[in-house]
Design goal:
The protein has 274 residues and is an alpha+beta fold. The protein contains four helices and 13 strands. 19% of the residues lie in helices and 45% in strands.
């Protein structure tokens, strides 16, 4: 009797793993649990980032203005559990193949106070390498994961759009839209900016495979896209590529940024996260 009962339970679990629920509620619940664990795993992690920026349109055109830029950086991933905030800090080593002169002392900055405070200072520093006149400092590959963070999820509505079976895994694409004033992004005046987008999620496991986040700040349209892949060294999925698009709706300026990541490893946090 007990053998049959155990066998029935095992068969039911196998069937569930092969055919996980694809309802919007179940997929979002699984993804929320995944992100909660991911916030603990992908912190105090550093990776090599190779990125390019291109100004596709600038009106009026400036003959001597830089149209492309290549950066080689170390990207530090930090999550603050107190503030439920991601910080992706770029420590830029090279600009267009030339070493950065007088770079900031990363360790000194981190040790100067709470880790998140030091991270913000470095984040503002690295944004000085941005091309174009569109002001931006939220270009982080992990930003879209906050959609499923426990402190932010209630500010979003979700709807399943497609379901597909790929390499034995059920992938569900979920559309999200933000509402309210406690938004993930704020403009330079501090005003809330509503976002929307989509997530490709593994049904059952809740793993995020692909994320797109879109937002409009006045006349500027922004779109951030992150693709994840498994990393053997960390035994987890990590950002593999990240793209940013910024377009002025007056067709004054258009900017594209592409980044890839490699050599993920853990680092020691120098300060305290508050």
């Amino acid at each position: 009797m007990y053998v049959r009962a155990t066998l029935s339970i095992c068969l039911a679990l196998v069937a569930q793993s092969r055919n996980p629920s694809t309802s919007t509620a179940d997929v979002i619940e699984a993804a929320t649990s995944y992100v909660a664990k991911y916030e603990q795993q992908l912190t105090s992690v550093v990776a090599m980032e190779v990125s390019t920026q291109r100004v596709l349109r600038r009106v009026p055109a400036e003959a001597d203005a830089t149209a492309t830029r290549a950066l080689t950086s170390e990207m530090f991933f930090i999550f603050s559990p107190a503030e439920h905030e991601w910080m992706a800090v770029r420590d830029v080593h090279e600009v267009d193949g030339k070493p950065v002169e007088n770079p900031p002392d990363l360790q000194k900055t981190m040790m100067a106070g709470p880790l998140l405070q030091g991270a913000r200072a470095l984040k503002n520093y690295s944004s000085r390498y941005n091309l174009g006149s569109i002001v931006r400092n939220f270009g982080e590959p992990t930003l879209s994961l906050l959609v499923l963070d426990a402190n932010h999820r209630s500010n979003f509505t979700f709807a399943r759009t497609t379901t597909e079976r790929k390499s034995g895994v059920t992938l569900v694409t979920v559309y999200f839209r933000e509402h309210g004033t406690a938004t993930l992004i704020h403009d330079i005046s501090g005003a809330p900016v509503l976002s929307q987008g989509e997530l490709v999620i593994e049904a059952g496991a809740g793993r995020i495979r692909h994320a797109v986040l879109k937002a409009q700040m006045g006349g500027i349209w922004a779109e951030l896209t992150t693709t994840y892949q498994p990393d053997a060294k960390l035994d987890m999925w990590v950002p593999s590529s990240f793209s940013e698009q910024y377009d002025d709706d007056r067709r004054v300026e258009s900017i594209r940024c592409e980044a890839t990541y490699s050599n993920f490893r853990r680092f020691e946090a120098f300060g305290r996260i508050k």
